[in-house]
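Review form for a predicted model. The reviewer records the input and the model, then writes brief findings.
Reviewer: anonymous (R2)
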Amino acid sequence: MHDHGIHVSEPSLTRWDPDEVRRIRQLPRVDRPREKLLSRGAESLSDVELLAVLLGSGTRRFGVLELASRVLRETEGKPSLDVRALRTIDGLGEAKACQVASALELGRRWFRKGRPVVRHASDALPYVQEIRGQKQEHFVCVSLSGANEVIASRVVTVGLLDTNQVHPREVFADPIADRAASVLLAHNHPSGTLAASPEDIALTKRLVQAGQLLGIRVLDHLIVTADGFLSLKQEGYV
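Model under review:
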């Protein structure tokens, strides 16, 4: 199995150092996070210090560095954080939870800028280019976000295309893990024939139904050859 896709790792607040958990006033001015950012740049700050700058202040119980460190510990390894989840962290009230959630979402959006978008069949052709001239049938699944951004493109099977080999659980396993909102499917016809066979149509309908149950929309199913492509959506089968 080959992975031809674009994998994007989202930035996260993961590293913390217990030695950094000190009150701001205990630090020399030059080493205080905000002053350090101004004099040396954001890249010189640790994760704890960056989050401390974002939070601005601590609480009566926790200094801002200690609070930042607690947030990092509690959020480590968690792929998705909303305000409700953040508010369960001791010392993080509604206002600061909103600040952290907003910063994380802004970071994700900024990090994802420039990610390829698939809205039409032709937009997906770069992700199936390698299979168009293959002598065996390759079945490809492209995972897409809610904004139709490409998360990943993978070859699911190689060989004869039939409903026994291309099973919904194999097709949707990775998109589920990707938290994909939709998928675009494609396979090649080594014969060069740009026509959907009864098996192609039956498989497409089966996968569309499976996607509906899983809440993952099948955007299209393409048949590709060295000379062109056929959209089963345009043919009325998706």
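Findings: The helical segments are 33-40, 47-55, 64-75, 83-86, 94-112, 168-178, 198-214.
Further findings: The first helix runs from residue 33 to 40.
Recommendation: see findings above.
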